[in-house]
Amino acid sequence: MWSRFSNPAKFEAMALAIGPFLFGAFALCAVFGLYTGLFNSPADYQQGDSVRIMYVHVPAAWMALASYTFIALMSLVAFVWRHSLADIAARSAALPGAVFTALALFTGAVWGKPTWGAWWVWDARLTSMLILLFIYFGYMAVWQAVPETARAARFARILALIGFINIPIIKFSVDWWNSLHQPASILRADGPTIDPSMLTPLFAMIIAYTALFGWLVLVGMRTMLSLQRVEARAARSPSRPAEVAAAVSEEGA
Amino acid sequence: MEQYRRAISFRADNAGCDRAGAAIVRGVSFELAPGNGLQLFGPNGSGKSSLLSMFAGLIRPADGRVSWRCDGREFAAPVEDSIVFVGHEAAIKPALSASENLSFWARSYGAANTEHALERLGAASFMQLRAGKLSAGQRRRVDLARLAAAQREVWLLDEPTAALDKDGVHIVRTLINEHLARGGIAIVATHDDLGAGFQRLELAR
Amino acid sequence: MTLSLLRRDIAIAFRSGGGWFYAVFFFAVFTALAAIAFGPALSALATAAPAAIWLAAALAVQFAAADLFESDVQDGSLRVLAAERVSLFPYWLAKAVLLALTAAAPLIATAPLFLTMLGVPFTDGISVSAIMLTGAPALICIAVLTSALSTGLRAGGLLATILAAPFAAPVLVFGVSAARALLEAGVLISPELLILGALSLFMMAATPVFAIAALRVSLE
Fold first, then answer.
1. How many CB atoms lie within 10 A of CB C80?
2. Distinct helix (H) and strand (E) counts, chain C
């Protein structure tokens, strides 16, 4: 099975097969989740209908972190097993992850406006998300800034790994910082107060987002593999030792 | 002539390396026992520098393998403290004098006598001058003085005669031959033929 | 090895005509700009002082690290060093200490002066310097790491600062909190200071291997 993940040709076959299923899963779950979330689930007794944005926000926040974990994992795989496919997977996950993060921030702000009265507050979750967005920017920047893709991959691996190690530290420090300045309530949409009927659409949206992520990564990987093939065809053939003079030992003198 | 402490040999088996993600060299096979040298010929861009970096253990072989043998044991990576590497540019800091530059490297080799090394390369006359004021050939001589200062068995040289005049080229040839006579090995990428007594590897596109 | 590298780099820094202490100038300039931005009321400045001084220090160290590896990569010295010895850890250490001596140390030494300009009493300023000293290793290690990741790239200094931001954020959080704890409550050894110290230790332990890996990548 693993050969499907190391051999580009086999990977392409798998990606072509799985892709439509993922997109279908995304579409189905998204429709189901949004419908039940918007129409079939109760409003919050405190926040009213504005709590419904949770169904878009929470899965986005979850995916933001899950995507980066995916990137870090792929970077580790690339580092240990030297799979260029893992590098490509990590790179493909960057933009979707960044978009999820931005979506989480945007929906967080939209959610915050009726609740706190301001578009942006420096609460722990939003601040952590913002820093995560910067991490994505930095990661994507490395891929862009280094002219040679192979070398960019190696820098990116290093950054992804040390960045991942740093995330718990960021979370801890932002929580600390927030507790000093703002004892105001943080929206705990995933706390024990959540009504079971809210859980169904929430899970549906999480699955939808995950499926979308998977589909986007596969599409991105296939695109990059095609680009690689084009580049490889354009590259010149390697130098080889000329037959006549190769390894002829002339000892003496 | 006093022999080197260790007997180190090198072997490349169908080795190849990549540059910028593309294959740049393939199919390199040769073996160097102590006392032997290899000249690496090839047009610019054919991968000579990449090969040298690969031999030095800086790049992983993209194909095949390289191995080192020291006192009967085999290693995939270079033996510790066995290499002197002379790169394409002279690893010389313009703000320091020639002798200061060499002293820095000599300290890492555990050597003390830098004056003698500079003399051998004919660089003693300008050794107090700041390297920024030296010509390319003079800087190259100071860089090559590392070879005379170190007592290391393996020399990996990337166009050591670049920017040198005839005298300089002659000195380099003498140095390399003495090095081989003491049981060292040398891989030299060069346009100047260093003479007979070397294996030759020609990279053709 | 570390010492001889350090001596060489210091000699080069001193002889290259002054560029090495631009970090202090930047520190001064940034503090002045912050003061201008916050307005002349000393009370407002004093509130902003911990943040301003930490920001100035973090940015100054980042910028000072921009060409830390430039020269060695350009003239092939790094390649020779990597080819001729087993471990690049002494090299990393020498560069980190170089940054500490040429950038961080002058900043920390002059911080009390600039803090006075921001309305902080001088004796308090010295304590704030001590707090910055605790966080300095973290800032230095982050700067060395991001410099290694961006060597030889166009706009490398800017890229390095972007990369450094997520790492520097926790240091800023606890550094500024520790300074606040001192200025507002008179507590020097606060929990924030201890965490700051832990961050420094963590960065010293975790970043070298990644920085060295990045340097080796630049040799490929």
1. 25
2. 10, 0
User: Is the Cβ of C61 closer than 8 Å to some Cβ of chain B?
Assistant: no
The pLDDT tens digits for A16-54 are 888 888 888 888 888 888 888 777 777 766 666 777 778
Domain boundaries defined on chain C: 2-12+22-217
Q: Which amino acid is at B27?
A: G
Judged by a CB distance cut-off of 8 A, whether residue B85 touches chain C is: yes
Query: Is a pLDDT exceeding 60 seen at residue A246?
Result: no
Q: Are B129 and B90 a contacting pair, CB within 8 Å?
A: no
Burial A61-78, CB ≥16 within 10 A → b, else e? bbbbbbbbebbbbbbbbb
Interface predicted TM-score (ipTM) of this complex, two decimals: 0.93
- Chain B residues touching residue A235 (CB < 8 angstroms): 22-23
φ/ψ (deg, to 5) at A241: -60, 135
Taking CB atoms and an 8 Å limit, are C206 and A158 in contact across chains?
A: no
Pairing of strands B185-189, B37-41: parallel
**What pairs with residue A204 in β-bridges?**
none
**pTM, to two decimals:** 0.89
DSSP secondary structure of B98-112: HHHHHHHHHHHHT--
Asked whether residue A105 carries a pLDDT value surpassing 60, the answer given is yes
pLDDT in tens, C181-192: 999 888 889 999
Helix segments in chain A, DSSP class H = 3-6, 8-35, 54-81, 84-116, 124-145, 149-181, 196-234
Q: What is the pLDDT of residue A96?
A: 95
Nearest CB to B27 within list A236, A240, A251: A240
Helix crossing, C89-99 with C191-217: angle to 10°? 130
Give the separation between CA B82 and CA B35, rounded to whole angstroms. 14
Indicate the residue type of C193: L
Residue B110, burial from CB neighbour count under 10 angstroms (0-12, 13-18, 19+)? exposed
Geometric angle at alpha carbon B102, from B101 and B108, rounded to 5°? 105
Please indicate whether, in this complex, the C-beta atoms of A159 and C163 are within 8 angstroms of each other. Answer: yes
Contact partners for chain B, using 3 or more CB pairs closer than 8 A, are A, C
Please measure the distance between the N-terminal and C-terminal CA atoms of chain A and give it in whole angstroms. 58
